[in-house]
Amino acid sequence: AQSVTQLDSQVPVFEEAPVELRCNYSSSVSVYLFWYVQYPNQGLQLLLKYLSGSTLVESINGFEAEFNKSQTSFHLRKPSVHISDTAEYFCAATNAGNMLTFGGGTRLMVKP
Amino acid sequence: KAGVTQTPRYLIKTRGQQVTLSCSPISGHRSVSWYQQTPGQGLQFLFEYFSETQRNKGNFPGRFSGRQFSNSRSEMNVSTLELGDSALYLCASSSGQGRNTEAFFGQGTRLTVV
Fold it and tell me: Which of A32, A96, A104 faces B42 most closely, judged by CB atoms?
């Protein structure tokens, strides 16, 4: 069985500061990793995904994540956050297609 | 291209009743997965349907069931509702082909059991 752990339930940060949201996974087989974002009263939107190839993946809105197999991590980073990035972020993993295992979520709170 | 549509958006039911939630996937997608989201347990996988067959199942009691129609639309049913079933139920669709397909989520149905 696989599991996903998000180490911080809340991360407060000032606008324009850098941020890192941590995610660790455990899996005995090949794994595909995802970061999703959820705004209040909304579903989940895919931010970025690691399937294979380059270990650094980027999203169109400035987020990036690095797959680190030796540390079993997939941390999400952004060099400069905006107020609009305030949301809940979920790390997820799968090795069986569409059966995603989610972490507990990290609430990113960007303060002016 | 229309996204994943879940209906209704909000539901209030009484303990002991049953409820049916609906999900229309993105056109052409054959896989539909269901998740339950609660403050205490987070996001948990319920089940996945692909081409009208249940392909994966999470660890939920038999009161939770689902089905998929030939047009890929899916329904999930919860019988004998309990207070703890209050949650946001999310549906995700994907092509279902291969192991690395992206899941697109609907906005969810918020179920409140009173």
Answer: A104
